[in-house]
Amino acid sequence: MSRLNPFAKLPGLNAASVLLVENEEHFQQSLAEALVKETSVTVNVRLAKSFPLPVENDESRPRIDLVVFIINLTSELSFQSAEASLKYLEPGYFLGKVCFMVSNARSSSVPAERLDAVRRLAASLHCPLLFAEDQTQQGVTNAAERLLTILKVAAGFVPFTTSLCLSNLTRSTLPPDIDQPSFD
């Protein structure tokens, strides 16, 4: 079981690689299809259910510019899988090459504690936290556009902007009262 290293391989010419990690694969495929439609840059999309990645594919795997953990808030297993997978990433990935994307945040069946736990996780790792609507095609397209913006920066296609700088601007922060008990 090896850890994924952001700088172990050379980048592809005019290509960016993103790894979408989702335990339940509900949103992953539609998001991957929307990302591949990008025409200004070649986007290589890799899909995984969790980490660690298989060692036998290590030589053919391109350099991963951005790792996206997709968390379905209606499933506790989705959050636990993302949390357990984090230990298989080298610390260099947390310098602007990891983000979390949350789906089903509007669902009435989502406990507030789970959303708070995801927000705490993203804030503790200084990673962006994106919310996405996976039920409509427009929601998937909007999520893909937001991810492409982050991916282009992480892959080095935006001049004078680094992924660490973008990460500082877009990282998830916690409001001061998140650890306070609710009076609802």
Automatic annotation (TrEMBL):
Pfam family, one: CENP-M
Gene3D superfamilies xref list: P-loop containing nucleotide triphosphate hydrolases
Cell compartments where the protein resides: Chromosome, Centromere; Nucleus
Alphabetized UniProt keyword annotations: Centromere, Chromosome, Nucleus
Keyword Nucleus: yes
GO cellular component: chromosome, centromeric region; nucleus
Entry protein name: Centromere protein M
Organism: Oryzias melastigma
